[in-house]
Amino acid sequence: MIHFTCDGCQRPINLEDELRYVVRVEVYAAFDGEESDAADRDHLQEIDDILEALDELEDAGSDEEVFQQVRYDLCAECRKRFLRNPLGRMSNRGVGFSNN
Ligand SMILES: [Zn+2]
């Protein structure tokens, strides 16, 4: 039997009586062309520019800064906690905010 460990609390997830949740996070650089005067350029030109920019970044060996994907397995508890606060901001704030 395959064993999963919760990436939130490090507890083994017992699939016989609980659900496992998968969180996939994609982080990628947003090339929206706003730094230049993109307002009246056509989309093909924009795509060209993006590809060029990606090429340059790849040459510089910084793929990870352009696109990164991570995956977590979570138990039900940690899923709730994650959804309430996906960016982990609670840690600087204390626990007391209302749950709507
Ligand atoms: Zn957990």
Please explain how this structure is put together.
This protein is α+β, with helices and mostly antiparallel strands. It has one domain (4-89). Helix content is 30%, strand content 20%. The protein has three helices and four strands; from the N terminus they run βββααβα. The chain has helices spanning 43-59, 63-66, 76-84, and strands spanning 4-5, 12-13, 21-28, 67-74. The chain has a two-stranded antiparallel ribbon. It has a two-stranded antiparallel ribbon with strand order 3-4. The model has no long low-confidence stretch (mean pLDDT 80). Zinc ion is lined by residues 6, 8-9, 11, 74-75, 77-78.
Main pleated-sheet profile: 2 strands, antiparallel
Which ligands appear in the coordinates?
A: zinc ion
Number of strands: 4
How does the overall form come out from the CA principal axes? elongated
What strand order characterises the main sheet? 1-2
In terms of DSSP E residues, the strand content is 15-25%
Helix/sheet category? alpha+beta
Which segments are poorly predicted (pLDDT under 50) over 5 or more consecutive residues? Answer: none
Number of folding domains? 1
Give the H and E element order. Answer: EEEHHEH
- CA-CA gap between termini: 39 Å
What does the average pLDDT come to? 80
Rg for CA atoms: 20 Å
Give keywords.
30% helix; elongated; alpha+beta; binds zinc ion; 20% strand; two-stranded antiparallel ribbon; 100 residues; 3 helices
